[in-house]
Design goal:
The protein contains nine helices and 14 strands. It is of the alpha/beta class. Strands 5-2-1-6-7-8 form a six-stranded parallel sheet, with helices on both faces. The chain has a six-stranded mixed sheet with strand order 10-9-11-14-13-12, with helices on one face. The protein has a two-stranded antiparallel ribbon with strand order 3-4. The two termini are 13 Å apart.
């Protein structure tokens, strides 16, 4: 791997930014120069590899300093700066949804379509997928390779960490303090002791934007021919997204075959033993974990249709949905020799 690159991190003090830093340390990503960037946090300090770095102003930053620049600060910030930073000669990895559906921006899960990065002949803008999409497609790709997925129905159970610090605080306060003092502000309804069948805004087709993200991103990353129907639900869980997934596939595959192909896929871990009640949960399996966990695997034939059902859990902040995937994109860019 490269001796070291200059890497800037926009939103270094945020929920995802702090996890990116943990992963850079854990995975020994080669950094010659680290530049944490922010707006409201300018002047505060960030630690990386036992060294302290002062957060610099994003507004005054010269992008020529960063070979890789990771944006973890939302769509508005990405819209304002990302393309200009690419034009200045930086590879930009953006975790927001701002550029995901633009034709000239690759939407990357390295294990699935990382080969696209080999064809980048110059500094480029690269989009990170939605957290729910990333863990979903990690589990679907090996199945799709074996028996083409025709139809996908998914219900997500999404943790409040996916909305950010304010949402985590709102859940905490509603649980531990008087209800009258903690009216909903982040979510449209109380989240504590409740389930809200709305993630993001409603669109004209009555699906939410989060639900359509699963459709758009599945089509862009995996296969545009898969029919997708989604319901996204916010649940009173601090961290870790869960998904109930139902697939109609082109041929029958036994439960044993499914477990075998998933078990040998890097980045996946099967926890599935009905006799002992073994299956993944966000509390047990989504705290600073890198793997996508799969359980409750079932296979059945109904009216000449072949269906697979499963349950998927992953850490939506530290894991594939955000921090890990962004760091893996940087690693892959180095592996394919993108830096000249």
């Amino acid at each position: 791997m490269n001796k070291g690159v200059s890497l800037a991190l926009v939103g270094a003090s945020g929920v995802v930014g702090s996890k990116i830093i943990q992963l850079l340390e854990k995975r020994a990503f080669p950094i010659a120069q680290f530049i944490p960037l922010g707006n409201s946090t300018v002047g505060s300090f960030i630690q990386l590899n036992n060294q302290e770095y002062k957060v610099e102003s994003l507004e005054n930053f010269s992008p020529e300093k960063g070979q890789f620049i990771i944006f973890s600060a939302g769509s508005n910030i990405a819209e304002k700066y990302a393309r200009d930073f690419v034009a200045a000669g930086s590879f930009v990895i953006d975790l927001s949804s701002n550029f995901r559906y633009e034709d000239d921006v690759p939407l990357i899960i390295p294990e699935i379509n990382g080969k696209i990065l080999k064809n980048l002949s110059k500094p480029s803008l690269i989009a990170n997928p939605n957290c729910s999409t990333a863990q979903l497609l990690m589990a679907l790709k090996p199945i799709h390779d074996l028996a083409q997925i025709k139809f996908l129905n998914i219900a997500t159970y999404q943790a409040v960490s996916g909305t950010g610090k304010a949402a985590i605080e709102e859940l905490h306060n509603q649980i531990y303090f008087k209800e009258s003092e903690n009216q909903p502000s982040v979510y449209p309804k109380q989240i504590a002791f409740n389930v809200i069948p709305q993630c993001d805004i409603f669109l004209d087709n009555n699906f939410t934007k989060e639900e359509m993200k699963l459709t758009w991103e599945t089509h862009k990353i995996l296969d545009p021919n898969i029919q997708v129907q989604a319901t996204c639900v916010r649940v009173p869980v601090f961290n870790g997204h869960s998904e109930a997934v139902f697939l109609r596939v082109s041929k029958e595959i036994s439960r044993e075959e499914i477990i075998k192909i998933l078990d040998r896929t890097p980045g996946l871990k099967v926890l599935d033993d009905p006799s002992s009640g073994d299956y993944p949960t966000p509390f047990e399996n989504a705290t600073d974990t890198e793997d996508v966990y799969v359980g409750r695997i079932r296979s059945q034939s109904l009216d000449d249709d072949c269906w697979i059902s499963m349950w998927i859990v992953a850490d939506n902040v530290y894991g594939k949905g955000a921090a890990l995937n962004a760091v893996q994109i940087c690693e892959e860019l180095l592996n394919v020799g993108s830096l000249k």
